[in-house]
Amino acid sequence: MHPNPVYRTKGENENLDYAAKRAFGTLAMNGEDHPLLAHIPFVIEGEHVWFHLVRSNRIVRALTTPLAASIAVLGPDSYISPDWYGAEDQVPTWNYIAVHLRGTVELRPQSELHDLLNRQSAFFERQLTQKTPWTPDKMSEGVMERMMRSIVPCRMALERVDGTWKLNQNKPDVVRLRAADNVAESGIGTEVRALADQMRNP
Question: Mean pLDDT in runs of 10 for the chain (202 residues)?
Fold first, then answer.
């Protein structure tokens, strides 16, 4: 997380809500010789983050006991050119939104997997308003059960939520808004229009 407190004014609820809506991140934990990473969709329910991993993932093999872990949830980001501020003596930077979820991850009983997958797919299908939601009953008999043999359910007990919303809040409004307009037109980075919207109203 960026140490400047001007970028860390969002409360835990706002950060958690952002992560819950984004619902995709990078799971990280310590391995024997290097960090272990996995890119996961997830659902946040109360004080827990639920997700699944492929059984062959090294993280699954490491989870013989519950382990400390983080999930980094990244939002829109972009390079910021000094020219975009319309002010003297500026330097290049990068604007972004990032939320970190920290806690303890454990494997869950395989009997919980089917319900977890139903909850995950229902969460994402609800966002596709132009179609009838997909449900598992559309699958041929036995197919989902066979596919589930290769994945395992996991749960993180949330212990800490932090967020950095680096959106030029350290600049005068007119300068920040000028940079936001240029971000929206630049096409550099990811989801730049969403980042520009956040910069306009940090």
Answer: 91 97 97 94 97 96 96 95 94 96 98 96 93 91 90 98 96 95 83 89 89
Assigned token pair, 62? 């490491």
Would you mind telling me the total number of residues written for the chain in this entry?
202
Residues 167, 197: Cα–Cα separation, whole Å: 10
Rg (CA), the chain: 20
Which own/partner pairs from 58-63 qualify as long-range (CB within 8 Å, at least 24 positions apart)? 58/31, 59/27, 59/29, 59/105, 60/107, 60/152, 62/29, 62/31, 62/36, 63/105, 63/106, 63/107, 63/154
d(CA 189, CA 92): 14
Q: What values do phi and psi take at 83, rounded to 5?
A: -65, -25
Burial 56-75 (b: 16+ CB within 10 A, else e): ebebbebbeeebebbbbbeb
